[in-house]
Structure formats: structure tokens, C-alpha cells
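Comment thread on ticket #2218

A.B. wrote:
> Attaching the input chain for the structure job we discussed in standup.
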Amino acid sequence: MHEGGCECGRVRYRLTSGPIFVNGCHCRQCQKLSGSAFAINAMIEADRVELIAGGDVIGPDGTAACPDCATMLWALHPQFGDRIRFVRVGTLDEGERLPPDAHFFVRSRHPWIVLPTGVPSFETLPGPDDPPLHGPDAQARLDAALR
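C.D. wrote:
> Ran it. Output below, let me know if you need it in another format.
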């Protein structure tokens, strides 16, 4: 179980299980939204993210941000809809416990970022001809969430 929250402390949330998958995204949009060289996103079922303080922080587009400090807590991806959340790992109390399983959009990676050996990386997103990035249990969770 992982807990996290916004910068000012108004909003707190809990992941009730581990994520399906964690990615480091180096696309320009994630760079801008995170204010950093890349974002680390934990893909998890929406029903496994519990707000424990701070009330309703979900915007009309499905993203969640603190109304006071504007920290983005999670976002949605059009490919997965509102049943999957992409939690910003940097908002977790111990985000270091969730390193990326893969890195995406490395074509726009800052040149001084050194990617770890043995972790898959992709110029953009993985394609249909790439090997699966997660095992059968994770795929079953994703399939169940998207039903």
C-alpha cells in the first residue's frame, strides 16, 4: 500500500494495491506538466485509488489536482478512459519504491538523463510488435478494469 498527497497537505490519497505498471514518460507534455525532465506515472485501476483527505479534487477531465496548491495527483489517458488512473509517483510519500518498468518517448529525453540498463525504452510508445511489458497478472487486471 502506498500513500501520497499534494504539496500543501490538504489532499491525501492511498493506493490500495501496487500499480499495474510504472512508466517514465519523457514526452514534452509530461515535461511541461511535471515541470521536470520527465514524469513517472503509476498505472492503476481507478477503484484502487482512495481519497483519504481533501474532498473532491477530480476535475471535469478526470484529472485530480489540489484546489489550493494545484499539485497534479493523477491524470487519465484517452486510450484507457476513466477506469485507469496515472498517478504521479512524485506525489507519493515514498515514490522511490516505484521505479519505472519502462521509459517512453525517449526521443525527447533530455540528453543528460541516463536510462538504467535492462529497463525497456521506446522512442515513442511501445507498438503492437513489441513484447509485452507486463505479465499475465497485470494484463488480467488491466483487462478487468477496461471491461
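A.B. wrote:
> Thanks. Noting for the ticket: The beta strands are 2-5, 12-15, 21-25, 39-45, 49-53, 64-65, 72-77, 81-88, 102-104.
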